Amino acid sequence: MTIDTVLSGVPDVVLDPPHGVEICPDCGLVQHLPPIENRSRLLCPRCGHIMERTAGRSLNAALAITLSALFLLIPANFLPLLKVNIFGVHHQSVLASGIWGVAEQGWPLVALILGAELLALPLLRFTTLGIVLLELYVGRNPYWLGKMFRWSEQIDQWAMLDVFLIGFGIGYERVAPFLPIEVGIGGWCVIVLAFLTMVTRATLERREIWRRIGPTYESIFPEIEHIGCAFCGLPAPTHHEGKDCLRCGTKVWRYQPNATMRTLALTLAGFFCYPFAYIYPMEYNYQLGRLQGYTIMTGVMKLVDAHFLLFAIIIFCASIVIPFLKLFMLSWFFISIHHRSTKLLRLKTHAYRIIKAIGRWSHVDVFTVTVFLPLMHLSGLLAVYVGYALPAFLAVVILTMIATDVFDPRVLWAEYERIHHA
């Protein structure tokens, strides 16, 4: 089957590491990665997927940042996030306070999701990634390492501390003009953690990690047809379809079974929840006997009136534009596949990568509510309540994220492959 198999073990990300045969996870093209030389990245020649990049990448730096993040998780979770003084009454919150407040108001499932995204999954992400990088650093390569790195990568987009940072900033600015508010030690730890999350993601070269975990095929017999692992890109002969990938442990398929229909079902569910997310209030503010609800759009206008134009633009894009864009794009993909279209395939694949990258940022408005919900509370005088739109909006975000995960972009290229290999 293969002519040569190599487990590379270079000390860190280098300009021209050993390459090999890889399969693009977005379009399924089998390709031999050429030397990077003076270029900072390698692109799939067919769909433009970034196969590898070296600029600013360092596994040793990623390990150091990951261990630092694990250390900061303790104070970030348990020390005060924000402190506020309301008419001489002192309130302070920790990271879990807003989540607990949502649960107390009768939304336990929403609280469970937020708790996973802000508390459990960041811990799992940094723990699994730290174990993988430590094992590679000391030169060990246990059989389970590929699966653990896959789990770490799958968890990454659901660990939301970097997204929470934006909601934290907006929530702070909404409270600061009216009440004396102070960022606590836990809040500063969360801010640093959010930046470390983004830096860790930027310093990782995943192709180098997969190369170290192995196996890596330097060449394959051209007369044998190969398909690729949709997660790590390892080529496998077609008779291996349905079996576990030798590198990351996921099932290898030419196209994920029933992926398109599952994506359609999730997209239709997202469309069903979409109007409820914008008709009903996202939150209710109670002040001196007066209860006033704010929809997502009225919340945006409130930020504009308060001259927070940048935050208004962020909320408008994250809460209105991005969810609609994801639903529209997923529908476009389904129609394209149904009609076996071979037009604009590169554009569609680019669009898929964009909505997969930006979809998680729609959580910003939800996190904004959870930030100031535990602070704005004075019995009988002041309170914030979760509106019916928040669970509906969160459902749209979660459903579209899962739909994007389930979707197999290689199906877009299925008719193109059939025509050119007939």
Short synopsis of the structure:
By secondary structure, the chain is of the alpha+beta class. Helix content is about 50%, strand content about 15%. InterPro entries: PqiA-like, PqiA-PqiB_transport.
Question: How would you portray this structure in words?
Answer:
By secondary structure, the protein is an alpha+beta fold. It has a domain of 165 residues: Up-down Bundle (Butyryl-CoA Dehydrogenase, subunit A, domain 3), CATH 1.20.140. It has 14 helices and 14 strands. Strands 7-6-8 form a three-stranded antiparallel sheet. The protein has a three-stranded antiparallel sheet with strand order 13-12-14. Helix 8 packs antiparallel against helix 13 and helix 10 packs across helix 13. The longest helix has 30 residues. It is globular. The two termini are 23 Å apart. Keywords: Cell inner membrane, Cell membrane, Membrane, Transmembrane, Transmembrane helix. InterPro entries: PqiA-like, PqiA-PqiB_transport. This is Paraquat-inducible protein A. It comes from Acidithiobacillus ferridurans. Its main location: membrane.
